[in-house]
Please model this.
Amino acid sequence: MMMADQFRKVEQYSPKSSPRGARSPVVSRQDSTGTLKTTISLGKNPSIVHSGPFYLMKEPPGESELTGATNLMAHHGLEHSYSKFSGKKVKEQLSSFLPNLPGMIDTPGHQDNSSLRSVIEKPPIGGKELLPLTSVQLAGFRLHPGPLPEQYRYVNQAPLKKHKSKHKNKHKHKAGDTPSQETQVAEIGQDTHEKKHKKRGRHEDDKERKKRKKEKKKRKQKHSPEHPGGLTPSQHSNG
Amino acid sequence: MAASLENLETQLEMFIENVRQIRIIVGDFQPQGQNVLNQKIQALVAGLQEIDKLKSQVPEVLIPLEVFDYIDQGRNPQLYTKDCMEKALAKNEEVKGKIDAYRKFKAHLMVELGNVFPHELAKYRAIRGEERPLN
Model:
């Protein structure tokens, strides 16, 4: 009861608009900020003096040397990698990343059950020792001669190789198909012959032009003997 | 680390090449090819044994799971790296912008508070010390 009376007296002097509401700061409670320090003196002249720092002044956050204000790309030395990827256009297909891998690797993995996710989700059975197959086990791989059925033949062909094989096929087409080969060779032969013929014509024309030029030069030299074009280096040294 | 990874890569490539050759043999099987096929199958097992041996030599490599999504979709995993770097740079720029804006705001607030509450701000400065220099 005595304590309560004391508090009532103090409350008369306490600020009306306390930032913490109507609660008295004298009552001990957890101060989350740790900044609310007030000296209350009782007696004839009770007073409340704020001895601590400002209200709601929390401790500043700990300084960290590395923040988003710095260029983190440069800080970690990744500028070269960034310019490498941002500068050139990266090809979309997986096959451009793994060009030597045979098969159709650009198709979604779940289609042919070759996704890496499935390896993680359903890990393969491991832990068993890998042993070479016995002759009895190898007998299970005895195959019948002959080609594979059509539906399995062209599975897993790399698109890039297809592209390349197109060029190869063109060559093969020229070399392999006998009936068209002859006609093609004949055509090529005609072409070359015509070209040669044309070349000959050109050659003859060139000869005539050179002759005319020589004649012109001779005429000029006669008119202007000081012309340097008419003298060889040896002639210069002699002269 | 690099050497062990390269070794693993070589072994995997050899294994894939062996499988590719088996595919060719099987594609149009000839009776005289049975011995070769048997050898190739044994080589397959040997290849798996070699890869299994390398398991202990390869250190732990952390790979983001998202990369697997790119590969599973038949996309170039370098695109993931590119996207990540672009996102990181964009975020870095965004955060830097925020930090700069807050710094400017604080400086402006201090000036204005100093005009209105000069004594209180003097106390504040005495407690807190001088501001950190702007980067």
About this structure: The helical segments of chain B are 2-27, 34-54, 65-72, 77-116, 118-128. Chain B has a mean pLDDT of 90.
